[in-house]
C-alpha cells in the first residue's frame, strides 16, 4: 500500500508519534474571558434563569412529600388541589425559564462563534506567504469551523451547566437534610464514588478528543487536495485510484478506531455511574424504609428523599462529565489560540508611512535592491513549529543555503527591466521581495527611495500589481474576479479593461457575459483566457509598479501578440519588472538582468549582452533563436527552463 507522510507521521504506521501527549497551555482559561465580556448582560440573564431552573428542580420533590403526607393520606382535598396547582405553576415557570435559557444560549453561542471565526480568518489573512506554503488548507478550515464551534460551547453550554449543577446540588442537599439528616449523610458519603470515574476517564477522553480533532483535520486536508479540480485531474492522469482510496481508507480507519475508543470510554463511564447510582438508591430505600417502618418519618418524606437523591445524581454526573466537557472545550479553545498566537513574519513597523502616489520620476517609483541576500524561512521562523496538524513535515534547507547573494540593481522609474536565467536561479524570489511577500535576510529593498519595511503594507500593495504564470481566479464570476482589484469599478471600466487585455470578445460571446462563473481556480477557461482575465484585473488596478512572472507563458502566438500590444500601453510610464519568457519581451526591455545561482552575472540591453557573450548569449541561442526564426519572434510556446520557485 502506498505510504503518505501526514502531519503526525506516516499514515498507517502503528508506531506513529502520539499527538495525544500534548497538554493544554497555561493561561487558556484566562484568555477565554475577553470573548465573554461583550455578552455579559445576556450571560447574566442566562445564569439567572438557569438558577431559577435549579431551584424548581429541588422544590418539586418537597411538594410531592407534602401532597402525600399532608394531602393524600389525611384525605384533605384542598391541600391536594392547592399543591397540584403549585406544581403546574412551577412547571410553566420552568418551561419559560428553559425557553429563555435556550434562546440566550443560542444567541451568545453564535455571537462567540462569529467573533472567533472572523478573528481567526482575519489573523490568517495577515500571515506571510511562507505560512501558506507550509500549511494544509483542510487543517486551517478545521480550526476555523470545528474547533471554533467546540470553543464557543465553553462560554454558553458549560457556563450555564456549571451554575445549574452547583445551585441544584446546594438546594437538593439542603432539602435532603431538611427531610432526614441520616439518609442524607449516607447518600453524600457515596458521592466521591460518583466523582472518581469522571476524574480518571475525563483525562483519557480529553486525549482522545484532541487526537480525533487532529485526525479529522488531516483527513480533511487530504479530501481538500484530492477534490479540487487540479488534484482530481492529477489523480486521473496518473491513474492510481486504488492507491488514493487506500490512503484515504487508512486515515478513515484511524478516525474510526479513535472514535470507537472514544465511544467505548464514554459508555464505560455511563455504565459505572449507573451502577453506583443503583447502589445508592438501594441504600436509600433500605435505610429509609426501615425508618418509615419505625415511624421515624412519613412515607411521603421517603418518596421525596428518593426523588431528591435521583435529582442529586444528575448534578453529580454533570459534575463528573463537566470535567470531560470543560477539558474538551479547552482543547478547542487551545487549538484556536494556537492559530491566533502565530506572529506574522511580515509586519508593519510602528509609525509606518504610506508610500506617496507620486514618487521617483513622475508617477512611477524606482525600485532598488541594495546588497540583498535571502534564504527562505524555516517552519520555526514562520511560527508553525507547534502546529502539528498544520505545518507540513517538509525537510529544511541548511541555514547557510542562501537563494540570493548580495544582489544589487536599480529598476529605473517608468522603465522595463527583464529578468532572465535558468531554472532555480532566483528570478521569482526577486519578484517576491518587491511586494514584500518576504523580507531580505540582509540588505535593503527600496521603492521610490523608501525602505519597504518603513511603508504600510496597504500602500505598498496598492502601488504594485502582480501577474504570475499560474494566474489564480476565484470560483466566482468574471465580474467579481475583475472587481477584486478595484471594487468600485464601473461597468464601462470593466469592459475597457477586458478590451485592453484582448479578452472582451470572448466575454461578450458568453451567454452570461461578465456574470459567467469561471469555476474553481478558473478551470472553465483555457490557460490563455485565464491569463488575459488576470491581465485585465491588473489593468483595472492600474498600479505604478508592475511585476510579471512569466505572465504570457500560456498564450499562443496570436494571443501573445495582442497582449504585447496591450502591455505596451499598460506598461508605459510604469516601473516594470518582468521575468522574460518570450524574445519580444527581452528585446523591448530597457534593462536585462541575467540571474544565475542567486547572483546577477550580466546586465545591459539585448544588443549589449549578445555582443558580450556569456550566459545570456547561450540562453539566446538555445531558447530565443527559434522564436526569432518564426513569425518575427512570436512563435508558439518555447520552454525557458523556468521551473519551481526557489
What does this structure look like?
It is a single chain. With 646 residues, the protein is an alpha/beta fold. The chain has 2 domains: 26-340, ABC transporter type 1, transmembrane domain (ABC transporter transmembrane region fold, Up-down Bundle), CATH 1.20.1560.10; 414-438 and 452-633, Rossmann fold (3-Layer(aba) Sandwich), CATH 3.40.50. The chain is built from 21 helices and 12 strands. The protein has helices at 28-36, 40-72, 77-125, 129-133, 137-155, 157-179, 181-189, 191-227, 229-238, 241-293, 299-340, 427-433, 457-463, 478-483, 491-500, 504-509, 527-541, 557-570, 583-588, 606-612, 615-628, and strands at residues 5-6, 9-10, 367-374, 404-411, 416-420, 442-447, 450-451, 464-467, 545-549, 575-579, 591-596, 599-604. The strands form 3 sheets. It has a 6-stranded mixed sheet with strand order 8-9-10-5-11-12, sandwiched between helices. A 4-stranded antiparallel sheet has the order 4-3-6-7, covered by helices on one side. The protein has a two-stranded antiparallel ribbon with strand order 1-2. Mean pLDDT is 76; it is low at 1-22 and 631-646.
Amino acid at each position: 500500500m502506498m505510504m503518505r507522510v501526514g502531519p503526525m507521521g506516516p499514515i498507517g504506521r502503528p508506531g506513529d508519534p502520539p499527538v495525544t501527549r500534548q497538554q493544554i497551555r497555561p493561561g487558556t482559561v484566562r484568555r477565554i474571558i475577553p470573548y465573554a465580556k461583550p455578552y455579559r448582560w445576556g450571560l447574566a440573564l442566562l445564569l439567572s434563569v438557569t438558577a431559577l431552573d435549579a431551584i424548581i428542580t429541588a422544590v418539586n420533590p418537597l411538594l410531592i412529600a407534602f401532597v402525600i403526607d399532608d394531602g393524600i393520606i389525611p384525605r384533605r382535598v384542598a391541600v391536594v388541589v392547592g399543591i397540584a396547582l403549585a406544581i403546574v405553576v412551577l412547571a410553566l415557570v420552568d418551561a419559560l425559564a428553559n425557553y429563555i435559557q435556550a434562546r440566550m444560549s443560542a444567541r451568545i453561542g453564535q455571537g462567540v462563534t462569529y467573533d472567533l471565526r472572523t478573528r481567526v480568518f482575519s489573523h490568517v489573512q495577515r500571515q506571510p506567504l511562507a505560512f501558506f506554503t507550509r500549511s494544509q488548507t483542510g487543517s486551517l478550515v478545521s480550526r476555523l469551523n470545528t474547533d471554533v464551534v467546540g470553543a464557543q460551547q465553553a462560554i454558553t453550554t458549560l457556563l450555564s451547566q456549571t451554575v445549574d449543577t452547583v445551585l441544584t446540588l446546594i438546594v437538593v442537599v439542603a432539602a435532603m437534610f431538611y427531610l432526614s439528616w441520616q439518609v442524607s449523610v449516607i447518600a453524600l458519603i457515596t458521592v466521591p464514588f460518583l466523582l472518581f470515574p469522571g476524574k480518571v476517564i475525563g483525562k483519557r477522553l480529553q486525549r482522545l478528543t484532541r487526537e480525533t480533532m487532529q485526525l479529522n483535520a488531516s483527513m480533511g486536508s487530504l479530501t481538500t487536495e484530492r477534490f479540487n479540480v487540479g488534484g482530481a485531474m492529477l489523480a486521473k492522469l496518473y491513474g492510481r485510484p486504488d492507491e488514493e482510496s487506500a490512503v484515504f481508507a487508512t486515515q478513515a480507519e484511524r478516525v474510526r478506531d479513535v472514535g470507537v475508543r472514544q465511544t467505548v470510554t464514554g459508555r464505560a463511564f455511563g455504565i459505572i455511574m449507573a451502577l453506583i447510582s443503583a447502589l445508592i438508591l438501594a441504600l436509600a430505600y433500605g435505610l429509609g424504609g426501615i425508618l418509615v417502618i419505625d415511624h421515624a418519618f412519613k412515607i411521603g418524606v421517603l418518596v421525596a428523599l428518593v426523588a431528591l437523591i435521583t435529582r442529586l445524581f444528575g448534578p453529580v454526573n454533570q459534575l463528573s462529565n463537566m470535567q470531560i466537557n470543560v477539558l474538551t472545550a479547552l482543547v478547542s479553545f487551545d487549538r484556536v489560540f494556537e492559530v491566533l498566537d502565530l506572529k506574522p513574519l511580515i509586519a508593519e513597523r510602528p509609525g509606518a508611512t504610506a508610500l506617496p502616489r507620486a514618487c521617483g520620476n513622475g508617477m512611477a517609483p524606482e525600485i532598488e535592491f541594495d546588497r540583498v541576500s535571502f534564504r527562505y524561512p524555516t517552519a520555526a521562523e514562520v511560527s508553525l513549529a507547534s502546529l502539528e496538524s498544520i505545518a507540513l513535515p517538509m525537510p529544511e534547507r541548511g541555514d547557510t543555503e542562501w537563494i540570493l547573494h548580495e544582489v544589487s540593481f536599480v529598476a529605473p522609474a517608468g522603465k522595463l527591466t527583464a529578468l532572465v536565467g535558468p531554472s532555480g536561479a532566483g528570478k521569482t524570489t526577486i519578484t517576491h521581495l518587491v511586494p514584500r511577500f518576504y523580507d531580505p535576510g540582509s540588505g535593503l529593498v527600496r521603492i521610490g527611495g523608501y525602505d519597504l519595511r518603513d511603508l504600510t503594507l496597504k500602500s505598498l500593495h496598492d502601488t504594485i500589481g502582480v501577474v504570475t504564470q499560474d494566474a489564480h481566479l476565484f470560483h466566482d464570476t468574471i465580474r467579481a474576479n475583475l472587481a477584486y482589484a478595484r471594487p468600485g469599478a464601473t461597468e464601462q471600466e470593466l469592459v475597457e479593461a477586458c478590451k485592453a487585455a484582448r479578452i472582451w470578445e470572448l466575454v461578450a460571446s458568453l451567454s452570461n457575459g461578465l456574470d459567467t462563473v469561471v469555476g474553481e481556480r478558473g478551470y472553465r477557461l483555457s490557460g490563455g483566457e485565464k491569463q488575459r482575465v488576470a491581465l485585465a484585473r491588473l489593468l483595472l488596478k492600474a498600479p505604478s509598479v508592475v511585476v510579471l512572472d512569466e505572465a504570457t507563458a500560456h498564450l499562443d502566438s496570436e494571443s501573445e501578440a495582442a497582449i504585447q500590444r496591450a502591455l505596451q500601453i499598460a506598461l508605459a510610464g510604469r516601473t516594470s519588472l518582468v521575468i522574460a519568457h518570450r524574445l519580444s519581451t527581452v528585446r523591448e526591455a530597457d534593462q536585462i538582468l541575467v540571474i544565475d545561482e542567486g547572483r546577477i552575472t550580466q546586465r545591459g540591453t539585448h544588443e549589449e549582452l549578445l555582443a558580450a557573450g556569456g550566459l545570456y548569449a547561450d540562453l539566446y541561442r538555445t531558447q530565443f533563436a527559434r522564436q526569432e526564426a518564426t513569425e518575427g519572434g512570436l512563435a508558439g510556446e518555447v520552454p525557458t527552463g523556468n521551473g519551481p520557485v526557489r
